[in-house]
Amino acid sequence: MTTLDSLERTLRQQVEATTSSAKQPLSDAQYSAGFGILGGGSGGRTYQDFIIPQLSQLLAPLFDSCGSISALEIGPGATSILGHLPNHLRRKVRRYTAFEPNSLFATRLGESFSSPSKAELLLPCLETPPNIHPISFTLQGDTTSGIGTGDNDEKFDLILFCHSMYGMKPKTKFIERALAMLDEQNLAMAVVIHRDSIYLDGLVCHQTASFPTGVVRVADDDESLGCFATFIAGFTLEDRSLDKAVQTNSPEVMMAFTKHATALSELTAKVPLEKGNPTVKNWEARLHRPISVVRPTEVRHVQQCVRWALVHKVGLTVVGGGHSGHCLMSNVVAINMGAFDQVHILAVEQEGTDSRPDGDIVSKTMAAGVTVPLGARPSVGAGLWLQGGIGHQARLHGLACDAIVGAVLVSVKSGEVLYVGIVPSQHRPTDAVCPENEDDLMWAIKGAGSNFGIVISVTFKALPDPTYLVEERVFPLSDSLEAQLTLSNLDSVFTKLSRNCSADAYLYWDAGQLQLGVTTFEASMTPLASARSATKYIDGFWGDCRRKVVNSVGLFETDLYLSGMHGGHARGKTFAFKRCLFLKHIGDENVAGRLLAAVQSRPTPLCYLHLLHGGEAVSDVAREETAFGCRDWEFACVITGVWSRDQDDTEAAQAAMRWVYHVAEDLLPVSSGAYGADLGPDPRDAALARNAFGPNRPRLARLKHSLDPRNVLAYACPLPKAPTEPKLIILVTGKSGTGKDYCASVWVSIFNEHAHKSLTARAVSISDKIKREYAAAKDADLKRLLEDRCYKEKHRPALTRFYLDQMHQRPQLREEHFLDVVHSSVNVDVLFITGMRDEAPVAAFSHLVPDRRLLEVHVQASKTTRRARRECPSGDDDVGEDSMSTRPALDYCPHLIFDNEAIGTETARRFAEQYLLPFVHMDLQRLATMVRSVPGFPRPGIEFRHVLAIVQQPGGLALCSSLLHTHFSSDWAKVGAIVSCEAGGFVFASPLALRVSVPLVLIREAGKLPPPTVSVSTPRSHISTWTFNNPKEKQIEMEHCVVREGMSLVVVDDVLATGRTLCAILHLLRKAEVSVDDVSVMVVAEFPVHRGRELLRERGFGGVRIQSLLVFGGT
Fold first, then answer.
1. Residues 6+ apart with CB under 8 A from 482
2. Are residues 330 and 367 in the same domain?
3. What is the 3-state secondary structure (H, E, C) of 137-159?
4. Which UniProt key words apply to this protein (predicted)?
5. How many domains does the chain have?
6. Under 8 Å between Cβ of 80 and 112
7. How far apart are the first and last CA of the chain?
8. Domain limits at 41?
9. pLDDT in tens, 270-310
10. CA distance 776 to 814
11. Which of 552, 643, 646, 1113 stands the most exposed, by the fewest C-beta atoms within 10 Å?
12. 612 and 590 in contact (C-beta within 8 Å)?
């Protein structure tokens, strides 16, 4: 599969070699036809999967900072790209201008705005008609449009180059002109969407993203091939077209530039430049062209780089050993840390400080009789150690990051020099300071350090230096059965090895046959000539081998791929691309089958799987002890795609990369996580990155937000965005005196105690909002109003009147206060809100925060207890806080009810542990990852959540059934039957009914059950109405007498969205003489944006308890 750039070069070369006549430019019709092929069909996926999501994410800060947006699109084609953004972004665009030189496109673009129905879908809040110029965007400006670069010319918040800057040369000049047209505000930007790679000399990129899997397919007919060839070449091709169907690789790149794009000279005037190209070994990184590579020689140079990046709001990359695929990025400044290469051995303390490649460190430490457990390659740098560092000493001494005891680094938040942990005083820079968050930073460095600062030096704990006996064996495998049996035996043998032994395995194809290579390593502090104890298990099973004794430096040269595979990969004639996952049992039938299938599907003969032995010292460290949270594994499976260098930039190279990702995707469900050292901003890495740090991801996200708030290190292993707002919101309701605030404080402590620093919980009172307003208006003492119960009780009647008066003046007051509390609770995962005065608050507010789970815990206590707790009785329990609500009594069903009669915290603590903590359990997060997002289905602009995809994942249905079972807040022993409606509900209800041993009552469409039946009408689901031309309603029915009055029922369904289907089911049960008080509902996924709970309450079903496992924003 060729690239569009390669195809264009080939077509132009063919034409130049065969014709001397002047080239004829494309007509508007020819351009339109070719562009239609490029953007239609498979090319349209690029917009759904990349352009619209990435552009939405990129523009969010700009749009959030402005009340209105002025936008210019250059070459949008027949429709505005901005018109496909989410509604809340589109509504911010108030002025729209476009340059579209193709007259056909310009006409259609204008028509899309002139039609009232279409205009509403595009940019519904335009204050003036769209200004569409049917001409090219030029460097000189257009005097007729009034758009130029002068002080009085129109300025824009956003300028979008929509489709590869077609016909604009030199591209750098066009972007510079666009930069001059930006508004003066800091966040204004010019965004370039371009197919294939692009390098813009002298311009520093604010942010970049890529979609490397874009593909364009052209139908195998003369007309399509001719149109496409003409379009790609850029001029008319007479009697010339492509001679066969085309499938081209079409990676998409998005680059954003701000007013700071031209600031490179400020940095290069202060920091030395790299002489020549930096030594970069990674093939992936070599594809990128950094805007500049600086080579600091002093710590202050690194500080200047960081401060420059902070001022100009750009990212940086760091070159250490040059093995990282993201150490260089196009149009981004790279810092080569090669000058910081000293090694110091402190004999008394046995610590080494360093920032140079592994082989040099080990050589130096060996001379002192010690070693450091580094990786498996001699030339890697700090990036590997900071992300983990897996080597042949891992079973004996642990990971490289486990040996780190201190570090010096430059903060990417402030540019300060920091030291953490043990750093000998003589190796601390004079201006280095120890930060207040030293423990957090030290924790993060050990496993995810490339995200949190630019490391100057690392202090390692040195260990005794052993000698190694290395043995190599290669076994030809005749068929899959023998291969699977051999892997099973290998797995059992490896588990018997002692801690000082490790074994690597290689699965590869050679000489027309599947091969298994095994290398064992035995470490000893004594001579190894006769040492055979540890490897006797392998000798007894497999016999002879090649054997040698090496020191710690020679250990780096013992990998089988260097000499024993395919004639040796170390001769520099190949390129490789790798990703790594962690496996527990390679002999397991499911795992072994996937490994063998991977090797058999290799796209080039040189691809292989490398299985590095782990366990022992690696798993001795608790997952929460360092940022490296993936500890429960026996093998690190390195999936290695290899091709010869003369195949670079060919289909073979692309196929090898696709194979690596395909194998990783296949292994991920049976893995214990992914290795973060290889991962970067490539969107194909996203799924692996989500599994890279185990339970430590939430804590890492918060630290990233705190320690790198400007995202200077944006191209390191991706971490999740910090939860700027809580994901679990628990509304604590109840009458005055029930102890709501006290309970909330106890429950907060439970979350903070049990979460091992991975979660943060906080309690706030929503009533404080009205108290602040009351104090300001009535000159009351706010401090006493918030803290002095007796003072508050004296003001309660007046406070109530003030609240009701404000409600009359501001009908949306409750929603305002709720959102204020949520939005102000940053860096909190679990938020408890007390002081709620609203009926059915979850139904009332959940749609306001549709991507967060809202729970209500209703606290109750006897009247006597409440009077005693209020200390300053006011005589009437219904006066005050409770009277701010209009409900006479609880007329709906909260999620949970807590009886707070007991003295002390024990009862409240048990309640939280049993009912609240499960909502943050990893199993729920794991279930959520099984729900696949499908952009653009069932219509453009919709992101569909495929809940039924859970059952397609290994163990998905069992996990979901288990969670439905354990999360049910009532007693399954009292349930008479589970009720479910086809088809999604059947999938989850059936295994649950089997698990809890109760009957399953089926509700089906009319005509599918034998009589007698009970039936009702129900609207079709909102998805069905969008997808099919079906009638708006259908009949559903169940068999008569399968349920009876007084029977306790649980309705199980896959989704709660609009609530219309659930209303029909409850109406059907009521028609069968079942009281709704005897019905509970459990759904797998809820979509609060559709306000289903509100509809249920309006229809008289507010008393039904509804529980959902997952909550999603959107559809």
1. none
2. no
3. CCCCCECCCCECCCCCCCCECEE
4. FAD, Flavoprotein, Oxidoreductase, Transferase
5. 6
6. yes
7. 36
8. 2-139+153-256
9. 999 988 777 777 777 788 889 999 999 999 999 999 999 99
10. 19
11. 646
12. no
